[in-house]
């Protein structure tokens, strides 16, 4: 692994979860076009996120990472994006007020268009087609034309990522997140629910505190007018990631299509292409840590991805499931601590708790999600470690995809408004309930 790194050196390794494009010339032309487009992010923004993650690793901040399981081209509209940002702002405010810590907001947004799949094909009756891998690769409709990987979709994904980032920047700089005007964050369909009333009480208290501080201070608290939003996605489609990787003079190589990337549990093999690609970029990198990870493998992987042992570089996102976290997590935490590795630990309580209903719908139990979160906090505390972040699949839409929660959703309720084409997400009420739970655990 000590060999010279280049953005394309991953191509000498085994690359899992990659589509098979039928026209190599069309793929090459698309990648050439992508590489010539203006960058979506800057090296300065990426470095600022790394500095924020250093604070989270030291216990001075907490990372809230959330968004869609897989973004949809159809959802690249102002209403859907606003609702997603609103729920993340509301959740972060609950964490700040309840736990008295700064919050680093990282969206699964502006690039989360590819998803790993457990099978390369999908079969319906006698028809077998390539599986749907996300809008950046193919389309969800069950026809050969829609399921054939199309490199032009990478350009469409880039365009939508650019529009999303532009919208986020305009909102965050233009007063949308101003604490003096929290009415900007209201979601019209959740008024007068228990969660919204609890949130409103917290907001009223904060508003009173702000008014008091501005009475006794020389002027308005200008730092309350904006918030930082960072973007992240699974660095799954390696041709796309390579095309957006640029050298910043003496600073090194950066993926300027996002601020942070992560490596999935299916693509984190030590000699694999995804690890090879991610080891060479300066962006913060996350690694999904699942039940098949051994302590020895994890320590070796950390050494490859963070050879200088820099704080803020590497986030370990564990995802075991409520039933297995007590069995699997302690040995991994112990090995990392014994090796002296500087990492930020985050909990993904979603992926290990996925199951199918009798009708075949994927869902997750809210009780299982809560159980894994509580278990993660307890285990880290017992071992002298620290849980510094949460990684959630959620939406600002009023969906019915996960059972349980404040609305007591059952399996029979799921079909009422199940929209995800890949994995089930938390809705607004479920997300806010988790925010209040996190604040309690952090205290």
From TrEMBL:
<dbReference type="GO" id="GO:0009423">
    <property type="term" value="P:chorismate biosynthetic process"/>
</dbReference>
<dbReference type="InterPro" id="IPR002480">
    <property type="entry name" value="DAHP_synth_2"/>
</dbReference>
<keyword id="KW-0464">Manganese</keyword>
<feature type="binding site">
    <location>
        <position position="69"/>
    </location>
    <ligand>
        <name>Mn(2+)</name>
    </ligand>
</feature>
<feature type="binding site">
    <location>
        <position position="393"/>
    </location>
    <ligand>
        <name>Mn(2+)</name>
    </ligand>
</feature>
<keyword id="KW-0104">Cadmium</keyword>
<dbReference type="GO" id="GO:0009073">
    <property type="term" value="P:aromatic amino acid family biosynthetic process"/>
</dbReference>
<feature type="compositionally biased region" description="Polar residues">
    <location>
        <begin position="1"/>
        <end position="17"/>
    </location>
</feature>
<protein>
    <recommendedName>
        <fullName>Phospho-2-dehydro-3-deoxyheptonate aldolase</fullName>
        <ecNumber>2.5.1.54</ecNumber>
    </recommendedName>
</protein>
<feature type="binding site">
    <location>
        <position position="351"/>
    </location>
    <ligand>
        <name>Mn(2+)</name>
    </ligand>
</feature>
<comment type="similarity">
    <text>Belongs to the class-II DAHP synthase family.</text>
</comment>
<dbReference type="GO" id="GO:0008652">
    <property type="term" value="P:amino acid biosynthetic process"/>
</dbReference>
<dbReference type="Pfam" id="PF01474">
    <property type="entry name" value="DAHP_synth_2"/>
</dbReference>
<feature type="binding site">
    <location>
        <position position="319"/>
    </location>
    <ligand>
        <name>phosphoenolpyruvate</name>
    </ligand>
</feature>
<keyword id="KW-0808">Transferase</keyword>
<feature type="binding site">
    <location>
        <position position="288"/>
    </location>
    <ligand>
        <name>phosphoenolpyruvate</name>
    </ligand>
</feature>
<keyword id="KW-0057">Aromatic amino acid biosynthesis</keyword>
<dbReference type="GO" id="GO:0003849">
    <property type="term" value="F:3-deoxy-7-phosphoheptulonate synthase activity"/>
</dbReference>
<feature type="region of interest" description="Disordered">
    <location>
        <begin position="1"/>
        <end position="21"/>
    </location>
</feature>
<dbReference type="InterPro" id="IPR013785">
    <property type="entry name" value="Aldolase_TIM"/>
</dbReference>
<comment type="pathway">
    <text>Metabolic intermediate biosynthesis; chorismate biosynthesis; chorismate from D-erythrose 4-phosphate and phosphoenolpyruvate: step 1/7.</text>
</comment>
<keyword id="KW-0028">Amino-acid biosynthesis</keyword>
<feature type="binding site">
    <location>
        <position position="423"/>
    </location>
    <ligand>
        <name>Mn(2+)</name>
    </ligand>
</feature>
<feature type="binding site">
    <location>
        <position position="108"/>
    </location>
    <ligand>
        <name>phosphoenolpyruvate</name>
    </ligand>
</feature>
<keyword id="KW-0170">Cobalt</keyword>
């Amino acid at each position: 692994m000590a060999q010279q790194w280049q953005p394309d050196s991953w191509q000498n390794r085994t690359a899992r979860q990659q589509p098979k494009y039928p026209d190599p010339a069309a793929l090459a032309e698309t990648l050439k076009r992508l590489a010539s487009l203006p960058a979506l992010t800057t090296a300065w923004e990426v470095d600022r996120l790394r500095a924020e993650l250093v604070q989270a690793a030291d216990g001075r901040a907490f990372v809230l990472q959330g968004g869609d399981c897989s973004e949809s081209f159809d959802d690249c509209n102002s209403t859907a994006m606003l609702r997603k940002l609103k729920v993340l702002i509301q959740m972060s405010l609950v964490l700040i007020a309840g736990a008295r810590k700064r919050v680093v907001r990282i969206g699964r947004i502006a690039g989360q268009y590819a998803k790993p799949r457990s099978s390369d094909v999908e079969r319906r009756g006698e028809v077998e087609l390539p599986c749907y891998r996300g809008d950046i690769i193919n389309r969800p409709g069950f026809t050969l034309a829609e399921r054939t990987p199309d490199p032009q979709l990478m350009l469409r994904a880039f365009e939508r990522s650019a529009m999303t980032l532009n919208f986020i920047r305009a909102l965050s700089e233009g007063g949308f997140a101003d604490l003096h005007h929290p009415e900007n964050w209201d979601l019209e369909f959740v008024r007068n629910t228990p969660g919204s009333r609890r949130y409103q009480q917290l907001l009223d208290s904060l508003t009173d505190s702000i008014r008091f501080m501005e009475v006794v201070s020389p002027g308005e608290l200008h730092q309350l007018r904006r918030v930082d939003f960072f973007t992240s996605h699974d660095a799954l489609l390696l041709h796309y990631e390579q095309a957006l990787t640029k050298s910043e003079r003496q600073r090194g190589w950066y993926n300027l299509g996002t601020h942070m990337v992560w490596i999935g549990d299916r693509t984190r093999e030590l000699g694999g292409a995804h690890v090879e690609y991610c080891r060479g970029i300066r962006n913060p990198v996350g690694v999904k840590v699942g039940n098949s990870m051994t302590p020895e493998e994890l320590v070796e992987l950390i050494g490859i991805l963070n050879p200088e042992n820099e704080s803020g570089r590497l986030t370990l996102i564990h995802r075991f499931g409520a039933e297995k976290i007590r069995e699997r997590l302690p040995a991994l935490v112990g090995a990392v601590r014994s090796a002296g590795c500087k990492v930020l630990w985050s909990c993904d309580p979603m992926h290990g708790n996925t199951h199918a209903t009798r009708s075949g719908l994927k869902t997750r139990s809210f009780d299982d999600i809560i159980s894994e979160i509580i278990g993660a906090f307890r285990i880290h505390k017992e071992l002298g470690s620290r849980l510094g972040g949460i990684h959630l699949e959620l939406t600002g839409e009023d969906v019915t995809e996960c059972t349980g929660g404040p609305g007591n959703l059952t399996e029979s309720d799921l079909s009422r408004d199940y929209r995800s084409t890949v994995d089930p997400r938390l809705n607004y009420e479920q997300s806010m309930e988790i925010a209040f739970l996190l604040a309690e655990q952090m205290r």
